[in-house]
Structure formats: C-alpha cells, structure tokens
Amino acid sequence: MFSVFRSAVFPWILITFAVLFMFTGHKHGVEFSKLRDHGVAAAAEITELEWKKRKNGGSEKEHVAHIQFTMENGQQVRDTVSIPESLARQLRAREIPWSIDIRYLPESPSTLVKAGDNDTSDGEKGFARILLLAGIAVLVLRHFFAK
User: Fold this and answer.
1) What do you get for the CA distance between the two ends of the chain, in Å?
2) For the whole model, what pTM was predicted?
3) pLDDT surpasses 90 at 29
4) DSSP one-letter code for 146
5) What is the rounded distance in angstroms from the CA atom of residue 37 to the CA atom of residue 79?
C-alpha cells in the first residue's frame, strides 16, 4: 500500500498537480476580481435544465442551466452555468421563475458567475500549497531514508 511513496515519480506528480492547482486558482481569482470590479449585472433567462451524473462515478448529479441574456450593447449571449440542487428542484417544480441574476464581463461575456457566488480561488490555492508541501516532504523523506 505504501509502495507508491517509494516511487521516485510520486513527489514530482504531487508538485506538478500543485503547480496546476495554483495556476487555476490564480486564474479564477483574477477572473473573479474582474467580475467584482467591472462586471455587469444582468438577468438571464433559463432556457433548459440538465441533470448529468458526475464522471467520478458518484451518485451526485451536476445541475446545469442553459441560459441566455442580452448584453448592454444588445448582443444576445447563450451559455451554461452550474446551479445548486435546491435551485434546480425549485425550477423543475415551477416554484420560481425560470431566471437567475448573473454578472458577466463585457469584454468576455462567457466569463460569468451567478450573482452572489463566492470566490473559491483561495481554496484552490490552499489545496495547491498542501500538495506542494506534501511533495516536498516526500522528497525530503526519500532523501533521508535513502542513506
């Protein structure tokens, strides 16, 4: 079971994933900052709901809303957003109108979030730091136990 820790490649895999998570966390943080600074609020009409099984084999489902909205310049935009299960159930039961509030970037309308969403980039970067430290720790331990 612990033979994977003896592999010379394992710590480098951890470090590689750490770098990838750090990069995506930074990218998401920059996008969220732009949306907060100069994103435009809009009401998006939900045209379709999709429930997809997640690919990790779990029983959880991903709820995807196909939306369309009109930008300030009159251009129509169609995109998709993930929505929480509670909102998806209310929409399916027709308990609430088929619309959501979003924020989008005028220069990149496909960069959007649901209004009220939180910035998750700190969590991604924190996970990357843990992976990086684990990779370095395995490298150091391998060095000391190799002697």
Assistant:
1) 22
2) 0.71
3) yes
4) T
5) 22
Tell me which residue range forms the domain holding 86.
10-145
Q: Are 35 and 111 in contact (CB under 8 A)?
A: yes
Tell me, yes or no, whether 85 lies in a domain. Answer: yes
Tokens 């099984």 correspond to what residue?
53
Q: How many other C-beta atoms can be found within 10 angstroms of the C-beta atom of residue 27?
A: 12
Number of domains into which the chain is organized: 1
Distance, CA of 37 to CA of 50 (rounded, Å)? 31
Phi, psi of 58 (to 5 degrees): -75, 170
Three-state helix/strand/coil letters over 20-82: HHHHHHHHHHHHHHHHHHHCEEEEEEEEEEEEEECCCCCCCEEEEEEEEEECCCCCEEEEEEE
Give domain status of residue 4, yes or no. no
pLDDT of 104-145, one tens digit each?
Answer: 999 988 888 888 888 889 999 999 999 999 999 988 888 887
Report the distance separating Cα 108 and Cα 40, nearest Å. Answer: 11
